[in-house]
Specification:
The chain has about 250 residues and is an alpha+beta fold. The protein folds into 2 domains: about 5-15 and about 150-250, predicted glycosyltransferase like domains (Thrombin, subunit H); about 35-130, Electron Transport, Fmn-binding Protein, Chain A (Pnp Oxidase, Chain A), CATH 2.30.110. Helices cover about 20% and strands about 50% of the residues.
């Protein structure tokens, strides 16, 4: 293994495990676009049994709990409210704006396309997983929050004598990332890619190493076939932090 890679790996393995709560305690407000971290936040709400709520017309409050998060399907299940009218209003809505007080912070996120479902024979509501989650320390206000534009991050990977283009779509706090690449990219789990070139508008191009964890063949929204590549980023904390800030944004 090249010395540079050994150093990057040492820096990664020496890092303490970060989490959204500790980061939020420092920044006060976060916009989370990392699907990995969003899944972790929702799982944590489920584990704690926290109440999620949504205000619905005319003057109804939908009170619920997260039953299950299903990232493979891109959905989550919400328990029925004790208020039957609130359940009817929730199912009639195009999207729910859900709020939750969780571990000393307020979180807001969308539940799109709510529809009737059942879990273990009990009625519930299935919604799409949110693309973003807003987290605010309870001592902070919400005035003046504007979401910055989403960054487009490219990653060029050298495999043998060929260079394959991909798009970096997710980075978690502990350096787990996801890329979208072509359907025929010749990769396997366990492969190590050195000196992958990352490009985005907010910085000069830089190099990272990638450890491939899994590859899934998927269909893009327009129907085109593609590959979703899950990797571990091997880079210095400084480089990793620059990438994290594209998906977990201090406001």
């Amino acid at each position: 293994m090249p010395l540079a890679s050994v150093r990057r790996l040492a820096l990664c393995t020496a890092m303490p495990a970060p989490n959204i709560a500790s980061r939020l305690a420092i920044t006060g407000r976060l916009l989370v676009r990392s699907g990995i971290e969003i899944g972790r936040i929702l799982d944590s709400m489920h584990e704690d049994g926290d109440t999620v709520s949504a205000s619905l017309p005319p003057h109804l409050i939908f009170l619920s709990k997260i039953i299950r998060v299903e990232p493979a399907n891109g959905t989550m299940l919400l328990a029925y409210s004790d208020n039957k009218k609130a359940n009817v209003a929730a199912l009639a809505a195009h999207s729910l704006v859900l709020r939750c007080n969780h571990r000393g912070a307020q979180f807001a996120f969308a539940g799109d396309r709510p529809k009737y479902a059942a879990d273990a024979g009990e009625p519930c509501i299935q919604c799409g997983l949110p693309a973003t989650v807003l987290g605010i320390q309870q001592r902070r206000g919400r005035d003046g929050i504007r979401a910055p534009a989403e960054a487009t991050v490219r990653c060029d990977m050298s495999i043998g004598d060929q260079v394959f283009a991909s798009r970096l779509i997710d980075v978690s706090l502990d350096g787990i990332c996801a890329l979208i690449a072509g359907p025929a990219i010749p990769l396997r789990a366990g492969a190590r890619l050195e000196s992958a070139r990352i490009r985005h508008a907010q910085a000069e191009p830089f190099l990272v190493d990638l450890e491939v964890r899994q590859i899934t063949r998927i269909a893009l929204p327009d129907g085109r076939p593609a590959s979703r590549v899950g990797c571990k980023l091997l880079a210095s904390r400084e480089v990793l932090e620059d990438l994290i800030r594209l998906f977990i944004i201090d406001l």
